[in-house]
Design a protein that fits this description.
One of its GO terms (biological process) is GPI anchor biosynthetic process. This is GPI2-domain-containing protein. This protein is mainly α and 256 residues long. The chain contains 9 helices and 2 strands. The protein has one domain. It is 63% helix and 2% strand. It has a two-stranded antiparallel ribbon with strand order 1-2. It is elongated and about 95 Å long.
């Protein structure tokens, strides 16, 4: 039969292209994605913990610069923070343990050799120093730039100390709080609240204004931002996704 034939009683040699709409009932309908508020709060806890450690570092720097804290006490504080890391290191295999010990030893040697040079750098104005510290420590919260920006910010922070011993103690504390300790912290509400309270108390002991600013910043990062995101996800709208077998809806063309 030719394509132009109009004889209705003849059976065509190709399937009919008409597809009934019943196939839509077999498709799976996925509503717009929405997350619960507790899950968003848990997802924000790592950022809140890093912000708490960063604010704690700034508080220790302020106390050390003002004379309320001395370098031996700061080194003792770092040793107490590193004790869980040493316990976790003993549980690792021998080869990996040796690699970590060698890498940590090299870092400590670099810190010890770098510390006497920090106070000899060209002094920077307070406005420039504040801007650079805010920029570097903000970039430190971005995972791809965490190591580079954190190291540069810690070194820049130590340039304000005239004593090589103070610079070494603060630099070791910065590496402990920014790099060594965060992987060991569990993502729990109790841990996050403890770190936030410790950072706020340390800053409030130096300045009430700094303690209030730290409280607002940590509350915004840990509670306000996830709550706003949860409210936005609960708004009606968004894309409804359909998944299933769409092959039955594809027109079949006769091969010529």
């Amino acid at each position: 039969m030719t394509p132009s034939s109009r004889v209705l009683y003849r059976r065509p040699d190709h399937a009919d292209n008409l597809v009934h709409s019943d196939f839509l009932s077999s498709l799976q309908v996925t509503p717009p994605s929405s997350r619960s508020l507790p899950s968003l709060l848990r997802a924000a806890q790592p950022l809140t913990q890093r912000l708490s450690l960063l604010l704690l570092l700034l508080a220790l720097h302020a106390h050390l610069l003002g004379g309320a804290l001395v370098a031996p006490h700061l080194l003792l504080f770092c040793a107490l923070l590193l004790s869980p890391l040493l316990l976790a290191l003993l549980l690792k295999p021998r080869i990996e343990r040796n690699r970590i010990v060698v890498g940590t030893g090299v870092k400590l040697l670099l810190l010890a050799s770098l510390s006497p040079l920090l106070h000899t750098l060209v002094p920077i104005s307070l406005d420039t120093l504040t801007f650079l510290l805010l920029l570097l420590f903000t970039l430190h919260l971005v995972p791809p730039l965490r190591l580079t920006a954190g190291t540069a910010g810690a070194v820049l922070l130590c340039t304000t100390h005239a004593s090589a011993r103070d610079a070494f103690a603060l630099l070791l504390c910065a590496f402990t709080l920014l790099f060594f300790l965060p992987p060991l912290l569990p993502v729990r509400s109790s841990t996050t609240a403890t770190l936030a309270g410790l950072a706020t108390a340390a800053l409030a002991a130096h300045s009430r204004a700094a303690g209030g600013a730290a409280t607002l910043l940590l509350a915004a990062a840990g509670v306000a931002a996830p709550s706003l995101m949860w409210a936005a996800l609960r708004r009606p709208g968004g894309k409804v996704r359909l998944s299933g077998d769409w092959d039955v809806a594809v027109p079949r063309v006769r091969a010529r």
